[in-house]
Amino acid sequence: MADHFPHTPSGLFPSRPPRPTYREPNRVRGGALSAGLGAGAAWMLFLGLLGDDLRTYVWWSLLAGAVAWAAAWVLTRQGDRGVAAGVAISVGVAWSAAAIAVAVRWGMSGDWPLW
Hints:
This is DUF4190 domain-containing protein. The chain crosses the membrane at residues 32-51, 57-76, 83-106. Residues 1-20 are annotated as: Disordered. Keywords: Membrane, Transmembrane, Transmembrane helix. This protein is an all-alpha fold. The chain has a domain at 30-109. The protein contains 3 helices and no strands. α1 (30-48) packs antiparallel against α2 (54-78) and α2 packs antiparallel against α3 (81-109). It starts with 29 loop residues before the first helix and ends in a 6-residue tail after the last helix.
């Protein structure tokens, strides 16, 4: 007579239930990331060029970065996270460049350049 009931494991080879697999609904693609990097870099460059000295360059960069991050937040909420990540990366790089320029000027002159 055949036994129709499943056998219980003996415990000699313990097994666990399979781990769950999580998939991102909106993956970050290389093309979208590159588009965001390019758009963010162009935005930061063009608005940074409005400044005619270090002080106005830094203030324009801060304003442009805040607007770009707001746009990146909207893009993230709409599901285009690749472009949003590219924009955020380019804003971070531009703000870092502005901070380094301020630090160098402040270190060389001893005077805070933003006021």
